[in-house]
Specification:
- This protein has about 400 residues and is of the alpha+beta class.
- Among the domains are: about 170-250, Helix Hairpins (Orthogonal Bundle), CATH 1.10.287; about 255-405, 2-Layer Sandwich (Heat Shock Protein 90).
- The protein has 11 helices and 12 strands.
- The protein has helices spanning about 5-50, 55-65, 95, 135-170, 175-210, 220-250, 260-275, 295-315, 345-350, 360-365, 370-380, and strands at about 75-80, 85-90, 105-110, 115-125, 130-135, 255-260, 280-285, 290-295, 320-325, 330-340, 385-390, 395-405.
- The longest helix is centred in the first third of the chain and has 48 residues, at about 5-50.
- The structure holds adenosine-5'-diphosphate.
- The site of adenosine-5'-diphosphate has 23 residues, from α8 and α11.
Length: about 400
Amino acid sequence: MNEMIKKTKKRLMWLFTVLTMLLLLLFITIAYLTVSKSVLNDQKDKVTQLISDESLGRMIHEASEPRERDFSNNLFAIATEGGEIVNKNNSNIDGLIKDWNPDSLEIKEKDHEDRDYLVAARPLEQAGYAYTAIDITQQKDVLHRLLIVLLLLACLFTFATMGLSFYMAGRSIGPIVQSVRRQREFVNDASHELRTPLSILSAGFEVLEEEEKRTMSAFSQETVEDMRGEVKRMSSLVNDLLFLARTDSEKVSIEKKTFNLSDVAKRSVRSFSTLLGETSLTLTSDIQENISFFGDKEKIRQLIFIFLDNAWKYNNINGSIHVQLTASSQTIHLVVEDSGIGIDAEDQMKIFERFYRVDQSRSRSLGGNGIGLSIADYIVKAHGGKIEVVSKAGQGARFTILIPT
Ligand code: ADP
């Protein structure tokens, strides 16, 4: 499957999963906060009710008749204004009310000796303070367990969602995959079909130029030349499209064998300087001798040509191109540097995408279609290498191709 489709499927899966996770977390937070608030509110009502005069009176009375009833869960204490406790039913309350002299009714959550309490305190009309406390350890434990169960369920659901998302993502991009496949087949077939007529046209124009040049008017000669140029441009586009269609369907064969890379680079530079003809561009090279390389010779030749072609297309009138080839024990460095228009930092990553052109009109007028660098990228990756770009707008570009030996 195409890399882009795989990436889209993965992205969709993660998007579904993250969204479900966020929704689950939101649900857990809301559910937990609602339950814990309602439990605590119940307890607050209870402790508030306990500190009323009536309940307090009852507790004091019942405390004076020990063992009649167990007050261990409902604690109370009465203290003087100075903080001295004059009545209480459980010594546990001592640690909960220390230095606490409220001006009005106050309720606080406190923990003491590994237990949780909800404590209420208020000033007494006759001077002093009253305190009541209830043990809420059990409620807190239940809430804690509820949180753990909810989190475990969230983890479980997240894993289930991941599987489901993967399936759903596959299903939702199914039609896109099919349409892309049909498009690819069409591009493949169409480029294949177009190659033969284009070659016939090209050969025909060549014969016309060679044999009929003398009998043709200047205008006809110009027209034939223009048509030949257009056919050449179309052939190159068709070849590029065919290459891309084949890379997509993994039909491009990389035929590796050992060859002299230095010779290939030198020959490419030589042929390219012939193509440059009488332009005022300078092409120089510094190629290390006898670099032997195990790879696809034709594809490497195509690769060098793509970079040289770009260095020429996006250069200034009196600009320069420099090619450098060196090899260390592990890596081959092929550098193509030009003094041309350069590439902005934000465009540097995008230029390897298909059909991306920084300046569409300039590229088109020079016969560019935004495919060259994606083919170069494919070839370099097929040889286990990578491409680095160093450039600034208006200050030329330096492409370094690093391939392991
Ligand atoms: P094209 O056929 O348009 O040249 P490429 O894939 O080879 O397609 O390049 C993509 C785009 O990257 C080009 O349109 C151009 O904007 C930019 N580019 C490539 N090489 C250079 C360079 N040496 N200097 C400046 N811009 C470049």
